[in-house]
Amino acid sequence: MARPNPRPVADRLRQQAALDGWTPWQLAHQITTECGISRLQAYRLAQGWTLDAAVTAYAAVRGRLTVQQLSAWENGSTRPGEGHLDGLCQLYETRPDRLGFATDYTPGTTPDAPVRPTRATPPPDDAPASREETAERRTLLRTLLTGAGLHLSAPALNALADVRETMAETLNETLSEMTMEQWERSAVEYGHAYQMSPPGQLLAESVLDFVEVQQLLARRQAADYRTRLCHVAAQLAGTAGMALVALGEQREARSWFRCAQLAAEETGDRALRAWLLAREAVIPFYFGSPQAAADLAERARLVAGNTACATAAWAPALEARSLARLGRADDARQAMQIAERAFARLGADQKSDTAYGYTERQMRWHIGSMHTVLGDTRRAQAALDEALTMYAPIEHLDRALIALDQTAGLIHVGEVATAAQVAVQTLEMLPAEHRTGIVVSRAREVAAAIPARAVRMPAVRDLREAIAASVPALPA
């Protein structure tokens, strides 16, 4: 049997609580009982708060909290730390056990004793309020308000707040421009966080937001808002795919990129579709299939076409690197020339956008990466050195991949020991949560390129051990 929609049930129970004088704990417990939701969520609904309202109220008590964090605690996917749990207890003026994060072992207490509501079970989610229910609500309001005299009682004030908030929620069933813009900013912020946030965290947060956007798309929306929501959904699914690539989860990453493509097709945005194809091409590029990478990158370039977008430069650069790995030197150089010409046409905003643009540092890195494979070590090292200077120390992923490209160049000129030492240092300096599948895969490629005559060198042995030590950090 389907669970009732918790919000209308909570609205009804709040009015009942105001009439019968329930405590906040009794109200929250009854919401949990009737709706089958967590105690933490029940306490929020007992206040009549949305997630946004609860986060705002929390900020006044304890400090910063995101909607994603609170939602994850409420649905049980994560648990608040000690500091946040104390803040939640302050916010709801209750104890940890009543929020569902501890157990009360006091003898003789029955904290879970059910409240006995005087009203019947709520109607199904989509059923309109009956005439009897509406009349009962009107009578309740009239009694509370006309009998208040000069001072409104707490139950009367609560009833007024319920009426007002119900109307606000009704009006908010469709998106406001402000909410739409917040979703668009959120999608861009995830793109910026890619270099710095641990991939596991980025995946969790982007997917939580994706679920909310999915729910918004399931409602009736204005055509313009639906298109914009599809754009946000494509970006969030693309971000999830990027995080999965970093984690080494190739199959699931492909599925998320294809999901993103479905959303992108609803928007008619060629630049977005091209960006997603280029992102998907990264999977075979780093996981052993340069031909598949070249094919996907070519598709991305063709989809971008003459559109003035970042992927018009990024896709041929990725294609060039893939062709270099296939030994097609002339084709690789030609593709990189296409990339450089397209890059020169990009506007300043696209060259500075680290989320969905194509930056100077990426261009330098990709040129250096191609020259490394083609054996032009001097040009390669110059470009890679220049690229590294443009990254902040906390931008872990690209810095690690650039450093590993440098070690490949060192191996090419015979400096095997130095290359192995740099590779080891790169792995060991990465925070454990960033020592992920894509980095370890590239480190393995570096180790595999070491000549057989050098495999017994101590530095090479250290590299193999560093790679082996990094593997447990990967998801099982």
Automatic annotation (TrEMBL):
SUPFAM superfamilies per the record?
Answer: TPR-like
Enumerate the residue ranges of region (Disordered).
100-135
The UniProt record lists the HTH cro/C1-type domain at 65-99
InterPro entries the UniProt entry points to? Cro/C1-type_HTH (IPR001387), Lambda_DNA-bd_dom_sf (IPR010982), TPR-like_helical_dom_sf (IPR011990)
The signal peptide here is none
Annotated TM spans: none
Biased amino acid composition, Low complexity = 109-119
Q: Name one Pfam family in it.
A: HTH_3
GO MF terms here are: DNA binding
Protein name as catalogued: Helix-turn-helix protein
Species assigned in the record: Kitasatospora atroaurantiaca
